[in-house]
Amino acid sequence: MSGNARARLLDELSSVSRRYMASYALFNQAVADRLGLHPTDLQCLNLLTLEAGPVTTGRVAELTGLTTGSATRLVDRLERAGYVVRERDSEDRRRVLVATVPEKIAEFGRMWNRLGGGWFTLFDDLGDAELAVIVGHMRRTVEFSGQQIARLRAGDV
Question: Are 49 and 83 in contact (CB under 8 A)?
């Protein structure tokens, strides 16, 4: 591929990426509004459903990049909305864990299923190698975004 063709593709990738991120942020806001949540709270809930079980508020802070104080307030909001409960750790009664409420998570899941019903059909015409490229790109993007978030929070920009 010539340098000009690659430069044009990278320019297009930049433009499409910006539109993609904006559309996802706006979609996230609409879903959060529908559920009566803040967009950050919605994404925290999303991340909690990917965890193996209940987590500490410190882990919520790690997942979201928030301070522990902000993470505590986020958990407070999710608890008031009925999506999580705080429970004592059965192995260490001094520790408090944040656990999702299965019924509310099922409700959350049903909404995602209704909204994302056509998601996998977007990939019907792609082969396994193309899907693997997309998965690899998304993994690298998540890692890169995490690094950039850390830089921003550290004031290193």
Answer: no
Cα separations in angstroms, 47 against 19, 38, 41, 74, 100: 23, 14, 10, 13, 11
In whole angstroms, give the CA distance from residue 45 to residue 37. Answer: 10
Residue 90 corresponds to which tokens in the numbers above?
């059965």
Strand ranges, E, within 3-157 = 84-88, 96-100
At 100 the pLDDT is 97
Torsions phi, psi of 2, nearest 5?
-70, 160
- Between the CA of residue 5 and those of 2, 8, 20, 91, what are the distances in Å? 5, 5, 22, 59
Q: Which residues of 121-137 are buried (b: 16+ CB within 10 A; e: fewer)?
A: eeeeeeeeeeeeeeeee
Question: Is the full-model pTM beyond 0.90?
Answer: no
* pLDDT tens profile 100-112: 999 999 988 888 8
Q: Which residues contact 25 (CB under 8 A, 6 or more apart)?
A: 39
